[in-house]
Write a structure and sequence with these properties.
The complex is a heterodimer of chains A (652) and B (475). With 652 residues, chain A is mainly alpha-helical. Helices cover 74% and strands 4% of the residues of chain A. Chain B has a domain of 206 residues. Classes of the chains: A mainly alpha (652), B mainly alpha (475).
Chain lengths: 652, 475
C-alpha cells in the first residue's frame, strides 16, 4: 500500500472538490437531512479511506527491517531550475506515518462527529469542503519529502485555519467579529512563516538543496560553522512558534476558538498546531547541530507551558481554558525537543491529539446541549443530563493530568524525566509545577461543568447529544486510555524498551549521536520523580474537588485576596494590550499617515502613472507607422533585410 | 522504393492527408456537409493529435530517403498543431454562421494548412520545409479572405498574399544560396558540415535570408507589418490559427534548420541578428498594443511581442532555449487560442463588439467567459502559476545561460509593459459597469474549446517541470 500513499492526499482533495463544487446542489437536490448525510459521509469517507491506507502502509513498513523503512513515492517533478529540483514526492517513514495516522485517524473521528454537530447549519457543505481541504494540506505537510512541499502544506493549513475560524463570519466574537479573529490568526502566523521562509532560504544557500534526505545528510558531512546552524534553527523555530502558538506568537490561538468546536478540536488542538513540533522533530539534526538554539527551544517551551497554564486557572469560557491548555501542552512538546528527547515530544503529540480532541469534542457536546452557552459559571450538574459526555470528559481530564495508567501519564512523564536527565532540576521543577496547575484547572473545569448544583436558567433543557456525536467521544476515550501503552518506559517494560521510542529511533539516530550524552541516572531517581509528580497531580485534583464542590467560597476569597494577581491572569498578562500598544498601533499609524498617503499615493503612484502616460504617448505616435499601404510595408521589410545583410557581410 | 512500414511511421500526416481527400469528396457530393465536415475535421485532428502524443516515445528515425523525421519533438509539434486546429474548428462551428456565408472549403483549408505545418515540423530537407511552407501559406491566404463579400477580408487576403509572396521569395533565395554553398538540401548533411560552412559567406547569407523569410512568418519586427491588418480583416478563429499554428510551424522550421547551433556543435553567428529582432519585436509589440482599441489588433501586437520573447530562445542558441521555445509555443498556442476563441464568441454580426470597451462589465453577464478570459490574459502577461509564465521563464533562463542577461532584462521590462494592456481587459470586465446592450451569441462548442484551452493552460502551469523534461529528453 505504501506506493499508493499519494491517495491519502488526493482523496481529501477530491472530497474538497466534490463538496466544494457540488455541495450546494447536493443539499438542494435531496430532501430534508439526507443531503447533509450525503455531504457528511463523502467528507468523512474520504478521510476514513485515507486512514486505512495510512494504516496498511504502517503495517507494511513495520514488516521491513528497521534501517530500511523509508520509501519515497515520487508523483511528479514540480520545479526543475538549475540546481533547484523540487518534486511532489512523498516520504513514507516512521515519523511521517505516525503523523499521517494521527491526522487521518483523529480527523476521521472529528469529521463523523461534525455530521451531528453541524446539523442544520446553512454552510454545512462549505464546512466539510474546508475540512477536507485542511486534511489535504496537512497531509502534504507531514508527508512531503522536501521543505517546499512542507511549506506548501504549512501555508495551506494556515489558509484553512483562517477560513474555518471565520466560518461563522456573520457572528459576533468578543469585541469584534469572527472575521477579526481569523485575520489575527492569519497575520500572526505570517510573522512565523516569514521566519520559516528565511530558514528555508538559508538552508538552500547552505546545502544547495531543499530535499530532506539531501539536506540532512549534508548537514552531517559538510563542514559548516555552528553560527550558520544557529541561524537556520532559530529561523525555523520562529516559524514553529507561529504555527504552534508559543511565546511570543501564541496570541492567536485563544481567539481561534471563534470557529466551530470540531475545528478547534481538529485544527487548533490535535493536528495543525502540532506542525511546529513535527517540523522541529523532522529537522532534528539541524537543531542538534545548534545546541544554543536547543536551549532556547527548551526554555521557550517551558515558559509557554507555565505561562499558559497560569492563565488557564482563571478563565471562565470552556473553550478558552482548553485553548490555553493546548498552548501549555505544546510547550511541553517543545521542551521535549529542546532537551533532545524528540521521540518523547512526538509521543506526547500523539497522546495529546487523543485527549485534547476528546476534551474539545466533549466541550462541543456541552455547548451543543446548552444552546451555544460557553461560560462555565452558567453550567453545573450536567453529569445527570449528559452522562456519556461527562464520563468521557472525565477520562480525558485524568489523561491530561497524567494519572497512571492513562496515556497522558506515559508521555508527560517521559518528557519530565528527560527534562531532568538531559536538562536540569529547574526544568523538571517548573515542568512538574505546570503539571500540577494543569490537573487543577482541568478538574476545575470538570467540576464546575458536570458536578455540583445547576447554575443555568430553568428555560434550558440540556440533553445528551445524538449517537453520531457520542460514539466518536467513546472511541477517543478508548484511545486516551490505551494510547500510552505503546510507549511504556524501559523501567517497566524491561528488555524490550520503549516501543514507540524504538520505532522512531532511526529518524533521530543522527541527532542523538550529535548531542552530548549526559551522565546516566539510576532507575531509583526516575521512579522517585515519577511518584512525586503523580502524587502532586492527584493532590491537585483533590484540591480542585474540595474547592469547587464543597467550599466554593475559598475560590472567591483567594481571588479577592490576590486581586492584583487574579486581574493579571484574568487579563492574560495584558499581552494583547501590550502588542497593540507597541506593535500593532504604531504600524497602523505609520502605514496610514506615511506609507499610504505619501509613499504609495504620491511617490509610487506618481512614478507609475507618469511612466504609463509617457509610454502611452509614445505608443500613440508609433501606431501612425501602420499606414495600411502594402507597398510601404514591403519597403520596411526591405530596409530590414538590407540592414541585416550589411551587418552580416561587413560586420564580421 | 517506398517501404510499406515507413508509411505507417507518418500516420499523423496520413490521417490528415486522407482527411482532406475525404472532406473534398463529401463537400462535393453531400448536402449534409455543412453539419458533418466540422465534426470530421475535429475528429481527425484529435485522432492525429492524440496519436502523436502517444507515439512520442517511438524510436526516432528518418524516413523516405532522409526527407522526414519521426518521433520525439516532431510529435510534440504535431500535437500542438492538431489540438490547436481541433480547437479552431470547434470555435468555428458557431462563428461561421455569425460571420456570414458558409463555405465548405473552410474546414478543408484548415486541414491542408495543418498538413503543411506538419511537413514543416517533420522536414529533414530544405525542400520539404519549402513544400510545407507553401501548402500552409496558400491555405492561409485563402482562409484570410474567405468571405469575399467583405471588403476588409479582401484587403487582408491580398496584403497577406503580396507580402507573404515577397517573404517566400527570400526563403527560396536563401535555400538556393545554401544549396550553392553546401551542395545539398539535406539538413542532416548541412548540420554535420555547419561548423565548416560557417566560414563561407555565401552560406551565411543564405541562412540569413532563410531566417528573414521566416521572421515574416513568425511576425517579428520589422517583418511584422502585415500582422495587425491581416488579423483584423480575417475571420477571428482563423486569426487565432495564424498566430498559433502558423507561428509554431515557422519556429519548428527554424529550429530544425539551425539544430547544429542549438546542439552546440557550431557557433551561433546569428545571435546578434536574433537578439536585435527579439528586442525590437518585444518592445514594439508591447508598446503599440497599448494604443489599440480594437481587441483583435491588440492581440495582433501581442502576437508580435510574443514572437520577440520566443526569439530570445533562438538567440540564446542552446538546448535550454529550444526546450523553452517548444514549451512556450505549446503554452502560447492554448492561451492565445483561448483568448481568440472568447473574442470570437463575443464578436457580433458585421464585425461588431470588437472594441475593448465592449468587454466592460462582462463579468456580470458571462461570469464563466470573463473568468476564463482573465485567466488567458494573466497567462499571456506571464503571471504565475499559468503556462505563459513558465514559457517566458524558460527562455529567459536560457538567455542568461548564454550570457545574454541584458536580453532577459529587456524581456522582463517588456512583460511589465504588456501587463498594462492585458490587465486593462480584466479591469474592464470586472470593475466597470455594463456599457452597451451587447447582443451575445451562445456557442456550446465554442465554450467547450475555450474550457479545454483553459484546462491545458492550467495544467502546463502546474506541471511545467515534467513537460520540459519530456521535451529536453528528445534533444
Amino acid at each position: 500500500m505504501t506506493e499508493f500513499i499519494y491517495l491519502t492526499i488526493i482523496l481529501p482533495l477530491a472530497g474538497f472538490l466534490i463538496n466544494g463544487i457540488f455541495g450546494r446542489k447536493i443539499k438542494n437536490a435531496c430532501p430534508d437531512s439526507i443531503g447533509e448525510k450525503v455531504i457528511g459521509w463523502i467528507g468523512s469517507g474520504v478521510i476514513g479511506i485515507s486512514f486505512l491506507i495510512a494504516l496498511f502502509s504502517f503495517f507494511e513498513t513495520l514488516s521491513l527491517p528497521a534501517d530500511n523503512r523509508q520509501t519515497i513515492v515520487n508523483l511528479f517533478n514540480w520545479i526543475v531550475v538549475g540546481g533547484l529540483n523540487v518534486s511532489f514526492s512523498y516520504q513514507v517513514d516512521q515519523l511521517s506515518l505516525v503523523m499521517a495516522m494521527i491526522v487521518t485517524g483523529v480527523g476521521f473521528i472529528i469529521h463523523v462527529y461534525s455530521i451531528g454537530y453541524m446539523h442544520g447549519d446553512k454552510g454545512f457543505w462549505r464546512f466539510f469542503s474546508y475540512m477536507n481541504l485542511f486534511i489535504f494540506a496537512m497531509m502534504n505537510l507531514v508527508l512531503g519529502d522536501n521543505f517546499l512541499v512542507l511549506f506548501l502544506g504549512w501555508e495551506g493549513v494556515g489558509l484553512c485555519s483562517y477560513l474555518l475560524i471565520g466560518f461563522w463570519y456573520d457572528r459576533k466574537f468578543e469585541k469584534g467579529t469572527t472575521a477579526d479573529a481569523a485575520k489575527k490568526a492569519f497575520i500572526v502566523n505570517r510573522i512565523g512563516d516569514f521566519g520559516f521562509l528565511l530558514g528555508m532560504f538559508l538552508i538552500y544557500l547552505t546545502f544547495g538543496s531543499l530535499n530532506f534526505n539531501e539536506v540532512f545528510s549534508r548537514a552531517e558531512s559538510f563542514n559548516i560553522d555552528e553560527s550558520v546552524f544557529n541561524l537556520i534553527a532559530l529561523f525555523l523555530f520562529i516559524g514553529a512558534t507561529g504555527k504552534s502558538a508559543q511565546i511570543p506568537l501564541f496570541v492567536w490561538l485563544p481567539d481561534a476558538m471563534a470557529g466551530p468546536t470540531p475545528v478547534s478540536a481538529l485544527i487548533h488542538a490535535a493536528t495543525m498546531v502540532t506542525a511546529g513540533v513535527y517540523m522541529v522533530a523532522r529537522c532534528s539534526i539541524l537543531f542538534a547541530s545548534a545546541p544554543a538554539i536547543m536551549t532556547v527551544v527548551a526554555v521557550i517551551g517551558l515558559l509557554t507551558a507555565l505561562f499558559a497554564a497560569t492563565i488557564g486557572l482563571v478563565q471562565n469560557d470552556i473553550k478558552k481554558v482548553l485553548a490555553y491548555s493546548t498552548i501549555s501542552q505544546l510547550g511541553y512538546m517543545f521542551l521535549a525537543c529542546g532537551v533532545g528527547a524528540f521521540s518523547a515530544g512526538i509521543f506526547h503529540l500523539m497522546t495529546h491529539a487523543f485527549f485534547k480532541a476528546l476534551l474539545f469534542l466533549g466541550a462541543g457536546s456541552v455547548i451543543h446541549a446548552m444552546h451555544e452557552e460557553q461560560d462555565i459559571q452558567n453550567y453545573g450538574g450536567l453529569k445527570k443530563y449528559l452522562p456519556h459526555t461527562a464520563l468521557t470528559f472525565l477520562v480525558a481530564a485524568f489523561a491530561i493530568s497524567g494519572i497512571p495508567p492513562l496515556s497522558g501519564f506515559f508521555s508527560k512523564d517521559e518528557i519530565l524525566w528527560y527534562s531532568f536527565a538531559n536538562g536540569s532540576f529547574v526544568f523538571w521543577l517548573i515542568g512538574v509545577l505546570t503539571a500540577l496547575l494543569t490537573a487543577f484547572y482541568m478538574f476545575r473545569l470538570y467540576f464546575l461543568t458536570f458536578e455540583g448544583k445547576y447554575r443555568f436558567s430553568s428555560e434550558k433543557h440540556p440533553h445528551e447529544s445524538p449517537k453520531i456525536m457520542t460514539v466518536p467521544l467513546m472511541v477517543l476515550a478508548g484511545l486516551s486510555i490505551i494510547g500510552g501503552f505503546i510507549g511504556i518506559p524501559e523501567i517497566f517494560s524491561g528488555e524490550h524498551g520503549n516501543q514507540f521510542h524504538n520505532w522512531l529511533a532511526p529518524i533521530f539516530k543522527s541527532a542523538e549521536r550529535k548531542l552530548i550524552t549526559y551522565g546516566s541516572h539510576s532507575h531509583f531517581e526516575e521512579i522517585l520523580l515519577m511518584v512525586v509528580s503523580v502524587i502532586g497531580a492527584a493532590g491537585s485534583i483533590y484540591f480542585a474537588r474540595y474547592i469547587y464542590t464543597q467550599k466554593s467560597s475559598i475560590a472567591v476569597q483567594i481571588s479577592k485576596r490576590f486581586s492584583k494577581g487574579y486581574n493579571l491572569l484574568w487579563n492574560k498578562y495584558f499581552v494583547d494590550e501590550v502588542y497593540d500598544a507597541t506593535v500593532v498601533n504604531p504600524i497602523l499609524n505609520t502605514s496610514d499617515s506615511f506609507l499610504w498617503k505619501i509613499a504609495d499615493n504620491k511617490i509610487i503612484d506618481g512614478v507609475v502613472n507618469s511612466t504609463a502616460s509617457i509610454i502611452d504617448v509614445v505608443s500613440q505616435k508609433i501606431r501612425k507607422v501602420q499606414t495600411g499601404v502594402a507597398q510601404f510595408y514591403a519597403v520596411v521589410m526591405m530596409l530590414g533585410i538590407v540592414l541585416a545583410l550589411f551587418w552580416i557581410i561587413f560586420g564580421r | 522504393m517506398i517501404n510499406l512500414s515507413e508509411i505507417f511511421q507518418i500516420l499523423p500526416l496520413l490521417i490528415i492527408g486522407a482527411g482532406i481527400l475525404l472532406s473534398l469528396v463529401l463537400e462535393m457530393y453531400s448536402k449534409q456537409s455543412e453539419k458533418v465536415l466540422p465534426w470530421i475535421s475535429v475528429f481527425l485532428f484529435i485522432i492525429a493529435g492524440i496519436y502523436s502524443l502517444f507515439s512520442i516515445n517511438e524510436t526516432r528515425m528518418i524516413v523516405f530517403h532522409n526527407m522526414l523525421s519521426v518521433g520525439g519533438n516532431t510529435h510534440v509539434f504535431y500535437f500542438i498543431f492538431n489540438i490547436g486546429a481541433a480547437l479552431v474548428c470547434l470555435l468555428s462551428i458557431d462563428y461561421i454562421k455569425k460571420y456570414g456565408t458558409y463555405y465548405g472549403e473552410y474546414y478543408i483549408l484548415v486541414q491542408s494548412s495543418v498538413l503543411g505545418m506538419m511537413l514543416m515540423a517533420g522536414a529533414k530537407d530544405l525542400l520539404v520545409i519549402f513544400m510545407g511552407l507553401e501548402i500552409m501559406s496558400v491555405s492561409f491566404y485563402v482562409l484570410a479572405g474567405l468571405n469575399r463579400k467583405r471588403l476588409s477580408a479582401n484587403e487582408a487576403s491580398l496584403k497577406y498574399f503580396l507580402l507573404g509572396a515577397f517573404a517566400t521569395g527570400f526563403v527560396v533565395y536563401g535555400i538556393a544560396l545554401i544549396y550553392g554553398s553546401a551542395q545539398t538540401t539535406s539538413l542532416e548533411v548541412i548540420t554535420a558540415k555547419f561548423s565548416a560552412l560557417s566560414t563561407n559567406l555565401l552560406f551565411i547569407v543564405g541562412v540569413l535570408l532563410f531566417l528573414v523569410g521566416f521572421s515574416f512568418k513568425i511576425a517579428a519586427f520589422p517583418f511584422h507589418m502585415w500582422v495587425p491588418d491581416v488579423y483584423q480583416g480575417s475571420p477571428t478563429t482563423i486569426a487565432g490559427l495564424f498566430s498559433t499554428g502558423g507561428k509554431a510551424a515557422a519556429f519548428s522550421s527554424i529550429i530544425i534548420t539551425l539544430i547544429a547551433i542549438f546542439s552546440n556543435s557550431a557557433q551561433n553567428v546569428f545571435a546578434p541578428y536574433l537578439a536585435v529582432i527579439a528586442t525590437l519585436s518585444m518592445l514594439f509589440g508591447s508598446i503599440v498594443a497599448i494604443a489599440q482599441d480594437n481587441i483583435k489588433r491588440m492581440l495582433a501586437y501581442s502576437s508580435i511581442s510574443h514572437a520577440g520573447y520566443l526569439t530570445i530562445g533562438l538567440a540564446a542558441g542552446n538546448q535550454d532555449g529550444v526546450a523553452g521555445i517548444i514549451f512556450y509555443l505549446a503554452a502560447y498556442t492554448f492561451m492565445n487560442l483561448g483568448a481568440f476563441g472568447i473574442v470570437a464568441m463575443i464578436e457580433g454580426e458585421a464585425e461588431s463588439n470588437l472594441t475593448i470597451s465592449s468587454y466592460a462589465g462582462l463579468s456580470s453577464r458571462k461570469p464563466l467567459l470573463a473568468a476564463m478570459l482573465a485567466l488567458f490574459m494573466f497567462s499571456l502577461a506571464g503571471i504565475p502559476p499559468f503556462a505563459g509564465f513558465f514559457g517566458k521563464y524558460y527562455v529567459f533562463i536560457a538567455a542568461i545561460k548564454s550570457d545574454l542577461t541584458w536580453l532577459a532584462i529587456v524581456g522582463v521590462f517588456s512583460s511589465a509593459i504588456s501587463v498594462y494592456f492585458y490587465l486593462r481587459i480584466v479591469v474592464l470586465m470586472y470593475f466597470k459597469e455594463l456599457s452597451s446592450e451587447l447582443t451575445l451569441f451562445e456557442s456550446k462548442t465554442g465554450l467547450i474549446a475555450v474550457i479545454i484551452s483553459s484546462i491545458l493552460v492550467i495544467l502546463l502551469g502546474i506541471f511545467p517541470g515534467s513537460i520540459l523534461q519530456l521535451i529536453t529528453n528528445f534533444m
